[in-house]
Amino acid sequence: MEERDCCSSNSSSPSTTTTGAEKRKHQHRRQHEQTTEKPYRGIRMRKWGKWVAEIREPNKRSRIWLGSYTTPIAAARAYDTAVFYLRGPSARLNFPDLIFQEEFDAFNNIHGTGDMSAATIRKKATEVGARVDALQAQTHALSHNNSTRTFDKPDLNEYPKPETSDDDEN
Predict the structure, then answer these.
(1) Is residue 128 a contact partner of residue 110, using CB atoms and an 8 Å limit?
(2) What pTM value is reported for the model?
(3) Which N-terminal residues, if any, form the signal peptide (predicted)?
């Protein structure tokens, strides 16, 4: 019987064979990941354009669902809130300047008494994400309304009125 080296690359071994389809699939996935860069940590975009945020619980395989948002900024802010409550002030945040003193105080109060539950973290993160999403939508609507000119819609049931100019009146 022939002994095999554990590190040899024998193509007859079923555990080391890779089909051409699998190679193409992995190559396609790598190319897709390179072309669709994630703008922030902890978020991803759904096929239909919504941005979602989730975070893995420390020392567990489970994840905390943080919600679905229309903007990547809202999803990133929800992620920041959750990661801050899970990991504290040393957490790597997308927007470190936007964590306010009240979050620091709440973090210190909670971690002085015990850990926060996943449901509480989800609730706080979704509140922040929804607030940011609403502000982003409102800002977008205001900028869109200011940039587009509004025209008076003519009443199609009226006969056109003759236009008079300032020169005709004198």
Answers:
(1) no
(2) 0.60
(3) none
